[in-house]
Amino acid sequence: MNKLTVWCTALALAAITHASQAQILIGQTAGFTGPVGAGVKETTDGAKLYIDSVNAKGGVNGQKIELISVDDKFEPKLASENAKKLIEEQNVVALFLTRGTPHTEAIIPHLTKHGVPLVGPSTGAMVLHQPVQKYIFNVRATYQREAEKAVSHLHSMGITRIAIIYADDSFGADGVAGAQKGLATAKLQPAVLEKFNRAKPDFAPIAPKVMQSNAQAIIMVASGQAVVDGTKAFRTAGSAAQIVTLSNNASSGFIKSLGENARGVIVTQVFPYERSIAFSMVKEAQELAKAKGGDDISPAMLEGFAAAKVLVEGLRRAGPKPTREKLQAALDGLRKYDLGGLEVNFSPEDHTGLDFADLSIIGTDGKFRR
After folding, report:
1. Quick check: helix, strand or coil at residue 320?
2. What pairs with residue 165 in β-bridges?
3. What is the distance between the alpha carbons of residues 227 and 65, in angstroms, rounded to a whole number?
4. What is the DSSP track for 211-271?
5. CB 195 within 8 A of CB 171
6. Using CA atoms, how far apart are residues 242 and 306, in angstroms rounded to an integer?
C-alpha cells in the first residue's frame, strides 16, 4: 500500500469518525399518520425550526442534533416498540416530543430501564406530572388546567348546561377530571357525560342525548378526527352548542379537517398567542419560519418550538459529548430558564414545566383568534 493510499484511507476513516461523533441523536415516536397526523407534523415542524437554526450555527458544543422521527400511527403498542428500538438500537441520547397519553405511558418502562430522558411529551396528562416521573420533563401545561379554564370561561358567559364527551382512555379521563373541577367551582353538574371508544368512535347514540339535554356547550376531550366526526354528528342532529376542545387539537390541520364546522370552535391553548410578538419566543419563531419561506406559525408549531428550546438548553448544559446521564442531570438543574417570555423551572422533585392556559376561537378566516 503506497503512502497516498494510506493517507487517503486515514483521511476517510477520520471523516467517518468525525461524522459519527458530530451527531447528537434524539429519538421521536409519534402518530405521523392516523387521526393526529396533522398536529404531529406541525408540532415537529416547529421543533425543527429551532433545531435547524441551532445546527446552522454549528450545533451544540460543536455537535449537530439529528432528530430520528418514526411513525407509531397513534397506537400505544407501536409507540412502545418504536421507543425500544430508538433506545436500544439507535442509542439515542433522549426521546423527544412523543404524542398521546397512553402512548407516552407505554414507553415509560423503557425510559426507566435505560435511564433515558424524555423531553416535551405532547400531552398534558396529570399522570406524567404527579407523582413526578423521574425521566419525563414536561414543557406544556396540564390538560386538567386547560379543561378547568374552559369551564370557567363558559360559565363566565352565562352558560350552565355543559356536556362533556370524552375518549375512553387515560387522556379522556384526565381531561374530564379537570372539567369536573371547573364544574364543581361553578356549582354545576354536566348536562351530559358520555365516553366513546377511542379506536372506533361512534357518536350516533351520543348525539340524541346531547340534543335532549339542550346543552349550550360541548367540551370534547378527544383527538383530531374524533372531534371532527363528533362535531359533524352534533351539528347534523341539530345542536347549535358551542364546541370546545383542548390544545392537543391546536393545529392548522385540525381547522382544515373541520371544514364548514370550523368557525366558532374554541380550542384551549398552553402557549401565548402565536402572533403576539410581545413574547420574544413567538417573535423568534416567526422570524425563523419567515426565513424558511414558511407561512404563519400555528399553536402546534409553537409547542414544538418551545420543547426544542428546552431540549437544546439541556444539551448545552450537559457539555461536550452529552450522555443520557449528563442530560438528565442538566435538565434536573434547569432553573429559571427563560424560553422568551415564559420561564421553565425543573428540579428532581418537579418536572411540571409551564402553567399557562388560555383560549382561542377559530375565526371566519380559518385561523385562531384571541
Report:
1. coil
2. 194, 220
3. 35
4. HHHT-SEEEEE--THHHHHHHHHHHHTT--PEEEE-GGG-SHHHHHHHGGG-TT-EEEESS
5. no
6. 30
The residues pairing with 94 across neighbouring beta strands, listed in sequence order, are: 26
Considering only CA atoms, which of 198, 199, 303, 305 is closest in space to residue 251? 303
Query: Cβ contacts of residue 195 below 8 Å, gap of 6+?
Result: 165, 166, 167, 168, 172
User: Any idea which residue has 396528562 for its cell?
Assistant: 125
Question: Which grid cell sits at 215?
Answer: 346543552
Alpha-helical runs (H) found in 72-224: 76-88, 101-114, 143-156, 170-185, 207-213
Return d(Cα 308, Cα 120) in angstroms, integer.
8
Residues in contact with 342: Cβ distance below 8 Å, sequence separation at least 6, in sequence order: 271, 272, 279, 281, 306, 354, 356
Tens digits of pLDDT across the chain (370 residues): 454 443 444 434 443 444 444 599 999 999 999 989 999 999 999 999 999 999 999 999 999 999 999 999 999 999 999 999 999 999 999 999 999 999 999 999 999 999 999 999 999 999 999 999 999 999 998 999 999 999 999 999 999 999 999 999 989 999 999 999 999 999 999 999 999 998 899 999 999 999 999 999 999 999 889 999 999 999 999 999 999 999 999 888 899 999 999 999 999 999 998 888 889 999 999 999 999 987 789 999 999 999 999 999 999 999 999 999 999 999 999 999 999 999 999 999 999 888 888 899 999 888 898 8
Contact 277, 286 (CB under 8 A): yes
Q: For residues 168 and 196, is the Cβ–Cβ distance under 8 A?
A: yes
- Tell me which residue has cell 396529570: 126
Pairwise CA distance, residues 284 & 341, whole Å = 11
pTM above threshold 0.90: no
CA-to-CA distance for 113 and 128, rounded, in angstroms?
17
